[in-house]
């Protein structure tokens, strides 16, 4: 019992250190971290910390230094806090935000309503179930055993990124395996069931971030909690990814942060300097999973098209500012690619061999079925489609065009990906069934943002009609 | 209230109603998981203890005791069975090479020599694979007395004639 408690303490201290590192990086990147609410800072800090820590571990491996707890954690922590101290001395900018912070305004001190408690209770019950479901069972899911968990175990055992003894998609980016191996260093052993507890916590941070973005979009507390619960408790895909230790949940988290921060920036509802933390999440996208860079590309393309279409007064300057997330994307993409090139790791080319038009047609029906089948995502995608339809012509005159373009572009990209997938006719059905839920999971939290817009519209119209 | 507004309201409540139904269905869907989790916590059969319930895992543990950590082994199995990835996971950092059990003996011998593999593991040892027959007949292979479902051979790969395969 005491051993379990100590292991849990080590695990929590390890995660706390990642948050601390992330908060230091986050505070370095933004003009004033107090522009962000505590929940937002926590949710954004963990992602920034995970990116910084694992990129540092990659550098250590590149230099041939053995991975370990002290060497992995202390230098980046020291550097981040030194940078923070220097920033405090050198930069003496104005305190406070230029943008009013809707979720830290006095209205948030209103007492909780009964529905708030209902939604909080539902979310707490889900996360508690997912946490125990994750830590009671050892790693068992296919990709966890075959790739993410296997690499993590190997990195821990070899104290470096030695990929010579296995062939486990060696060219895949390694944010998740390195973070898991860091947790093994914290625990002092390969305790894969306890380390799996990372994923429900990651899911909780995703939900916290979704709620924060919804509040900044103008939803009140009850609406924000309601849409968050509507997202979390709709279908089985998100719930199962809370405890199976795949890299798709972290990728969905990074995608939500990158899209959400850019969306708020386009709406002029983001805190000052929001593009800099967004850049960290673009880095996370590229460093988390093979699908990350194309996903980041669609985010940037959607933002570019939105700016060119809407032409806000400062649109040219804004186009230039998109260079900040592009820099982040490069920071997450290049180190691993260079490492792989120098180590002569063979890069996979699963999806770029040929175009198979019949697969394109078949995948349309698979995609439509996955979007409306309640087993996958419940009623979330139909609700997002309704929100878009009811946006009417306003869609073309507001930044809401951005998430709509992002989602539409990605659904199209999913179809194209299946059209170029080199599978036999007999395998194609199985291939699509095994992957489509995960591909949609990456973008589903963004669909929840659209649902939030729909709820906001509905309430506004209700108020207009009653007056 | 306009007709469109009415429709909007009905659709809104329809979606909410569907969601409430979905949430109840989710509770029913995950109820067996919840029951088993509670049973495991009460019985204190959680975490690493769960793996011990699997005979394949117990067999892999015996392999880990036989194959030194720096050695290479060839695992003869179908990828689709999903057992090979489990074996690889539990046997890291040993170097792992997968071959299908229907691979002809000539290719198996070639692979053993090329990969410098000191062990050959056949998961379904009871099945009539031509490779396992060839291994049993060759002097370069020594069948180890490892209890369990599969066959484990110690291989002297330098004695194998497998420098070239066409």
Description:
The complex is a heterodimer of chains A (467) and B (166). In chain A, 73% of the residues lie in helices and 0% in strands. By secondary structure, chain A is an all-alpha fold. Chain A has a domain of 317 residues. The radius of gyration of chain A is 22 Å and the shape is globular. Chain B is an alpha/beta fold. Chain B folds into two domains: 44 residues; 106 residues, 3-Layer(aba) Sandwich (D-Maltodextrin-Binding Protein, domain 2). A five-stranded mixed beta sheet of chain B has the order 2-1-3-5-4, with helices on both faces. The radius of gyration of chain B is 26 Å and the shape is elongated. The termini of chain B are far apart. Chains A and B meet through helix 4, helix 5, helix 18 and helix 20 of A and helix 1, helix 2 and helix 4 of B.
Features:
heterodimer, A: mainly alpha, 20 helices, globular, B: alpha/beta, D-Maltodextrin-Binding Protein, domain 2, elongated
| Structural class computed from helices and strand pairing of chain A | mainly alpha
CATH second-level architecture of the largest domain in chain B: 3-Layer(aba) Sandwich
Shape of chain A: globular
Strand content of chain A: under 5%
Relative helix content of chain A = over 70%
The major pleated sheet of chain B works out as:
5 strands, mixed
Rg of chain A: 22 Å
Mean pLDDT of chain B: 90
Distance between the termini of chain A: 61 Å
Q: What is the total domain count of chain B?
A: 2
CATH topology of the largest domain in chain B: D-Maltodextrin-Binding Protein, domain 2
Task: Work out the helicity level of chain B.
Answer: 40-55%
Strand ordering within the main sheet of chain B:
2-1-3-5-4
**What's the helix count of chain A?**
20
Give the overall pLDDT of chain A as a whole number: 92
Write the element-wise H/E pattern of chain A from the N-terminal end onward: HHHHHHHHHHHHHHHHHHHH
Largest sheet of chain A: none
Shape of chain B: elongated
């Amino acid at each position: 019992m005491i051993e379990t408690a100590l292991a849990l303490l080590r695990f929590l201290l390890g995660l706390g250190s990642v948050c601390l590192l992330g908060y230091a990086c986050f505070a370095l990147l933004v003009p004033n971290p107090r522009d962000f609410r505590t929940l937002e800072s926590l949710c954004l800090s963990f992602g920034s910390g995970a990116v910084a820590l694992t990129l540092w571990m990659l550098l250590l491996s590149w230099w041939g230094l053995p991975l370990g707890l002290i060497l992995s954690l202390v230098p980046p922590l020291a550097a981040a806090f030194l940078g923070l101290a220097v920033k405090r001395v050198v930069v003496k900018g104005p305190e406070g935000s230029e943008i009013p912070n809707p979720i830290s305004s006095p209205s948030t001190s209103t007492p909780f309503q009964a529905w708030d408690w209902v939604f909080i209770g539902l979310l707490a019950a889900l996360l508690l179930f997912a946490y125990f479901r994750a830590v009671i069972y050892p790693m068992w899911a296919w990709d966890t055993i075959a790739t993410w968990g296997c690499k993590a175990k190997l990195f821990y055992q070899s104290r470096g990124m030695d990929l010579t003894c296995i062939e486990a998609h060696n060219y895949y980016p390694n944010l998740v395996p390195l973070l898991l191996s860091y947790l093994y260093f914290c625990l002092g052993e390969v305790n894969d069931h306890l380390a799996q507890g990372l994923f429900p916590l990651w899911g909780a941070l995703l939900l916290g971030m979704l709620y924060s973005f919804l509040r900044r979009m103008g939803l009140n507390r009850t609406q924000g909690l309601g849409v968050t619960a509507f997202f979390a408790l709709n279908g089985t895909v998100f719930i199962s990814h809370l405890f199976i230790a795949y890299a798709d949940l972290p990728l969905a988290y990074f995608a939500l942060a990158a899209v959400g921060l850019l969306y708020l920036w386009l709406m002029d509802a983001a805190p000052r300097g929001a593009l800099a933390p967004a850049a960290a999440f673009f880095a996370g996208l590229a460093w988390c999973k093979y699908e990350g860079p194309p996903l980041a590309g669609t985010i940037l393309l959607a933002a570019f098209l939105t700016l060119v279409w809407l032409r806000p007064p400062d649109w040219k300057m804004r186009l230039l500012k998109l260079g900040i997330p592009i820099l982040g994307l490069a920071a997450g993409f290049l180190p691993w690619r260079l490492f792989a090139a120098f180590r002569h790791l063979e890069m996979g080319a699963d999806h770029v061999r040929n175009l198979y038009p019949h697969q394109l047609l078949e995948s349309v029906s698979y995609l439509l079925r996955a979007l409306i089948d309640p087993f996958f995502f419940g009623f979330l995608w139909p609700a997002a489609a309704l929100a878009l339809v009811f946006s009417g012509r306003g869609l073309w005159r507001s930044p809401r065009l951005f998430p709509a373009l992002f989602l539409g572009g990605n659904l199209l990209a999913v179809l194209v990906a299946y059209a170029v997938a080199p599978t036999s006719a007999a395998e194609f059905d199985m291939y699509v069934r095994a992957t489509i839920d995960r591909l949609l999971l990456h973008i589903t939290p963004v669909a929840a943002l659209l649902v939030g817009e729909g709820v906001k519209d509905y309430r506004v119209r209700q108020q207009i009609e009653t007056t | 209230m306009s007709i469109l507004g009415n429709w909007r309201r009905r659709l809104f409540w329809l979606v909410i109603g569907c969601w409430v139904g979905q949430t109840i269905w989710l509770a029913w869907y995950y109820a067996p998981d919840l029951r088993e989790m509670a049973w495991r916590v009460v019985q204190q059969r959680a975490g690493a203890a769960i793996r011990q319930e699997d005979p394949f895992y117990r067999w892999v543990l015996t392999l880990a005791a036989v194959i030194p950590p720096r050695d290479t082994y060839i695992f003869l199995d179908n990828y689709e069975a999903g057992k090979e990835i489990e074996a690889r996971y539990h046997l890291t950092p040993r170097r792992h090479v997968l071959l299908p059990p229907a691979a002809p003996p000539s290719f198996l011998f070639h692979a053993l020599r090329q990969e410098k593999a000191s062990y050959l593991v056949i998961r379904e040892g009871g099945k009539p694979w031509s490779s396992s027959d060839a291994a049993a007949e060759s002097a370069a292979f020594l069948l180890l007395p490892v209890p369990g479902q599969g066959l484990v051979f110690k291989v002297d790969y330098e004695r194998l004639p497998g420098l070239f395969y066409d």
